[in-house]
Amino acid sequence: MRKLIALAIAFFFLFGCASSTLIKSNPPGAKLYLNGQDLGETPYTYSDRAAAGTMRTVTLKKEGYKDFNGTIKREQLSVGALIGGIFLLIPFIWILEYPPQYNFEMEKIQ
Predict the structure, then answer these.
(1) CA-to-CA distance for 24 and 104, rounded, in angstroms?
(2) Which sequence spans correspond to the domains of the chain?
C-alpha cells in the first residue's frame, strides 16, 4: 500500500501539477517577458508546475506601442487536483490552474 501511495504522489509531482495558458497580444508578435525573463514573442504557450495562487508578471514590448505590464495567475479550479487531493491531500497544492488563455491589448503610441 505504501508503494502505491508513493507512486501516486510521484505521479502528481511529475505529471499532474502542470498547467499551461496561451498568452496573446493585440497586436501579435510582441516581445514577451515573464518575471523579467525573455520568453520570445506572442502568441506564446506558457506552462509551469507552480502552486495554486501563483502570480507571474507579464511585460510586452513592441515597436510603436507602449510597454504593457500585467499579470497571469493560477485562478481556475483544477478538477483533477481536487479529486486527487481528496485521496492524497498533496494535489491540493495545485488545485488552481491557469485559464486557457490571456489576451492583452497594447496601446499604440500617438
Answers:
(1) 6
(2) 2-105
- Range ranked top by mean pLDDT from 7-11, 73-77, 79-83, 84-88: 73-77
Buried b (16+ CB within 10 A) or exposed e, 31-47: bbbbeeeeeeebeeebe
The sign one gets for the Cα dihedral 86, 89, 90, 96 is positive
Instruction: Give me 7's grid cell.
Output: 507512486
Cell numbers representing residue 86 in the block = 481528496
Condensed to tens digits (0 to 9), the pLDDT of residues 5-42 reads 555 555 555 445 677 889 999 999 999 999 999 999 99
The CATH code of domain 2-105 reads 2.60.40
